[in-house]
């Protein structure tokens, strides 16, 4: 069993930072807590036994970005990433953002497309990266299938 939890207390972010360090190699010293962001953690177990994934929802005007979506290696390909992504997108729309965006490497977009994201053009992103977007209508319609 997995469960997702939003972390609002900056003192409780250490598990999220540990996941990002394992998956991306991002040192904890790089992270700056921002109260406007939503920090999300995915646990395995009934009592939040083992943190296995994390993500960040970052506001950008009337829209938001999902960043640092990560699942630890041994828990990938078990629908954990999709569960975490769907939760993050839903949280973004519940927070009344108009669109949710994500930027990922070209070869890692399948998960976003599966959830209903569409590729969008942005000349500000670096080469070999793709920007995706989703609006509430496309997301909730895709959830019904």
From TrEMBL:
InterPro entries documented for this protein: Acyl_CoA_acyltransferase (IPR016181), GNAT_dom (IPR000182)
Residue ranges of every copy of the N-acetyltransferase domain listed in the record: 2-137
CDD domains documented for this protein: NAT_SF (cd04301)
A Pfam family annotated for this UniProt entry: Acetyltransf_1
PROSITE patterns in the cross-refs: GNAT
This protein's name: N-acetyltransferase domain-containing protein
Domain of life: Bacteria
Molecular-function annotations in GO: acyltransferase activity, transferring groups other than amino-acyl groups
């Amino acid at each position: 069993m997995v469960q997702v939890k939003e972390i609002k207390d900056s003192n409780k972010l250490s598990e999220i930072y540990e996941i990002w360090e394992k998956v991306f190699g991002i040192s904890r010293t790089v992270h700056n807590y921002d109260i406007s962001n939503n920090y999300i953690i995915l646990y395995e177990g009934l009592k939040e036994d083992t943190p296995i994934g994390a993500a960040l929802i970052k506001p950008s005007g009337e829209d938001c970005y999902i960043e640092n979506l990560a699942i630890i290696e041994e828990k990938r390909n078990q629908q954990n990433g999709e569960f975490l992504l769907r939760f993050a997108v839903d949280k973004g729309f519940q927070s009344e953002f108009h669109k949710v965006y994500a930027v990922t490497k070209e070869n890692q977009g399948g998960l976003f497309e599966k959830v209903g994201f569409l590729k969008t053009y942005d000349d500000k992103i670096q080469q070999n990266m793709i920007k995706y977007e989703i609006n509430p209508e496309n997301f909730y319609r895709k959830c019904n299938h």
